[in-house]
Amino acid sequence: MQSTLKTTQRPTPMPTPKRTLGARLRSGQALVIGLPYAWLLVFFLLPFLIVMKISVSEMDVAHFQDLFTWSDGVLQLRLKLSNYLFITEDDLYFKTYLNSLKYAAITTLLCLLVGYPFSYYMARAGKALQPALVMLVMLPFWTSFLLRVYAWKGLLSEGGWVAGWLSALGVEPLLVQLGLIPAQGQLMNTPFSLVLGMVYTYLPFMVLPLFANLSKMDLRLLEAAADLGASPWSAFWRITVPLSVSGIVAGSMLVFIPCVGEFVIPELLGGPSTLMIGRVLWDEFFSNNDWPMASSVAVVMILLIIVPLAWFNQVQAKAQEGAQ
Amino acid sequence: MRSNLHPYAQDNGAFLQIQNVVKDFGHGAVAVNHVSLDIRKGEIFALLGSSGCGKTTLLRMLAGFETPTSGHIVLNGQDLVSLPPYQRPINMMFQSYALFPHLSVWDNVAFGLRRDGLPREEVAERVDAMLRLVQLERYGKRKPHQLSGGQQQRVALARSLAKRPQLLLLDEPLGALDKKLREATQIELVNIIAEVGVTCVMVTHDQEEAMTMAHRIAIMSEGHILQVGAPHEVYETPATRFVADFIGNVNLMDGVLALDEPDHVLIRCMDCEHLVGHGITGTEGMAVAVAVRPEKISLSRQPLETPYNQVHGVVRDLAYFGSYTVYHLQLNSGAVLKVSATNAARHSDAMLQAGESVWAHWDETAQVVLTQ
Ligand SMILES: Nc1ncnc2c1ncn2[C@@H]1O[C@H](COP(=O)(O)OP(=O)(O)OP(=O)(O)O)[C@@H](O)[C@H]1O
Ligand SMILES: [Mg+2]
Questions:
Q1: Gyration radius (Cα) of chain A, Å
Q2: Which residue blocks in B147-221 are alpha helix, DSSP H?
Q3: pLDDT tens across A131-173, in order?
Q4: Residue at B2 is within a domain
Q5: Which stretches of chain B sit within 8 Å of chain A by CB?
Q6: pLDDT tens for each residue of B309-323
Q7: What is the pTM of this model?
Q8: In terms of domains, do B237 and B275 share one?
Q9: Residue (of A312, A255, A254, A302) closest to A278 by Cα position
């Protein structure tokens, strides 16, 4: 009894004030997470705030006026909202925004339609074949995207290979009927060439997240569905598609968001009927030199992207909850 | 020797007939090799065998996920082989449960009924009844990942029973549960299956599970069926050394048939002579093995006055399990004999100690003579 008392009374050695492994790990974690956030803060949020400030500033001849002025004990905040008002008044902006959203949506949809079966069969192909297939999807990245879009110019213009094939296949009348090209033989600088170029460029961004998602799927769930009487088609729609929603959302965001603000592809492959907001931005900044106006256009564009993004995120969060 | 007629050979009116089924995966991997089984209506039939013996493959052929290389599977007079899984009147409870993670418990159970295009009210009625049966009424709105392992297992069971299949397949139904929960669930599962009255084929590598749950057991090894019978039949009268060894613990003593008299035979092994009565006959000099279960052997410090079915040994090891103790006796020949003795009394003086010299003896009827 006494001996046990003694042992409990023996002073326990104080833990040395060294940081524990857990604390160190946590600080490492903070660093890993903090760095990209710091990057985003400095190179995205800060510039965005500057753009926002410019968009509500009045411009002197050479520089912007301060938002806040202090005189005679009065703090004045001057927000020039006329640029925003102008955006709502001049329907050029409204139409180009709509155009941008429209082409981005069409591109996303087509990428999904082409990319889903593509990723599906990629994910179901033999394990030995998959790395090669993924490689093939990424192969175009080895050449500059600008060069590849330029190449389409050659392929689609009169006498180009693709133009030749399309007319040989008799697809052109259909494209005319759909209003994608103005007349037969005019493939370039039309909605058709624009969408083709965007789908071509952004397809890998749809395929890769979808592939990652679909190849993780537990195939026993499909067996369970078949066992319960679902035909392969029904099992696809009721099991495979719902379980790949997070992949669909990720791929769609990766395609839709850059497509809205896309500048290069519409410049090279688009035409007068496919004016998109990127072009308007460019003009306001560099042709009109109206930076406040350009900044307002940019801010509205970002808002237009953020709203669907927030919605997508919510859908994804819901899907995630179900899948895991 | 012993008549080796399989019990099912006499059976007529089998509900599920597996006829000469072979599954060859190519490059010499014959997972199921000429298997024939007749399964009666309403029985729980267990396929028992060690890992890789082809149990799952056989079950998957019943469900339709694998096509037999040859042979027939006939359910209630209908040949199933050409039917795809979604047209078979069979439901399977998967080893991993394979619950749909994006659907609630209720929708999981309703999935099969909806595929059949049942009216909404009937679906609701039957799903509710199923959930009541497995005591999960209050969990209908939850997602599978919000349930415990045992609850998931019951959802899987409810889902596979909801369509009232003619045949229920269970692949290692309790494999994911811990030992305690497993024992409780075995009985629960049998009760539910009995209540529904469905014919059931289950796969397991756990012999206790097969024994407690099944009406009949088929022992499989390397794609073959070695023996079919009720649990006590395969335990008490194993047909081969493999089965005797596979089911429970056994002492196998090799010997030769020394004497064949009309009412008994005498088998001479290294450590003793076995006298076996019950209707056995063979040619003198043939090699046989005598199987005796450890719990059928008694120990005493003094020899009995019989020249047969008795060996002398020294206690080498003993393992105390609470309700019983397992002794390992080293026999004169060097062979080891396993004996298990019930600990009927507390602090018994009779408890043998390591190093003690003892006599082990058993009843004449405790012995099973095996030729292969
Ligand atoms: N798709 C397949 N292709 C080739 N061989 C296979 C295939 N599926 C199973 N096998 C082989 O068939 C044999 C039987 O496999 P099976 O899955 O039926 O075993 P099991 O009895 O269920 O074992 P366990 O208890 O480990 O689940 C194994 O040797 C296995 O390697
Ligand atoms: Mg198995």
A1: 28
A2: 149-161, 179-196, 207-213
A3: 999 999 988 888 898 999 999 988 888 888 888 888 888 888 8
A4: no
A5: 63-65, 84-87, 90-92, 94, 96, 98-103, 111-112, 115-116, 143, 145, 159-160, 163
A6: 888 999 998 888 888
A7: 0.78
A8: no
A9: A302
